[in-house]
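Our preliminary data section would be incomplete without showing what the modeling component actually yields. Below, a chain of 118 amino acids is followed by its predicted structure, encoded as tokens that our downstream tools consume directly.
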Amino acid sequence: MRSDERAHDQLRETTLTPHYLMHAEGSVLIQAGNTKVICAASVEDRVPQFLRNTGKGWVTAEYGMLPRATSTRTQREASAGKVGGRTQEIQRLIGRSLRSVTNLPALGERTIWIDCDV
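Predicted structure:
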């Protein structure tokens, strides 16, 4: 039994709230139990240099954990001056996963940034 008294094979209740942020081209609040994730999409009319003049787009991601997302405060990585290995791997996983299901040529030479904050 887990601390929230769910069975080992019982999923947490999950809700999605679209259009959560006013200024993003797209956004969603994802809630799974007590975990909350805000994801926002932003579009830029440019691509990384290695994709220039190819006609293809790009999807990339940034991830951050808020200082009180854990039981004890975690220092913001920005104040430490570098991105930690765990954060970097999560960003890569999000970006690769989204690129694998995106028709990049259909984007034209645009980049979609996905920002996820937990």
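The chain has two helices and five strands. The longest strand covers residues 35-44. Preliminary results of this kind motivate Aim 1 of the renewal.
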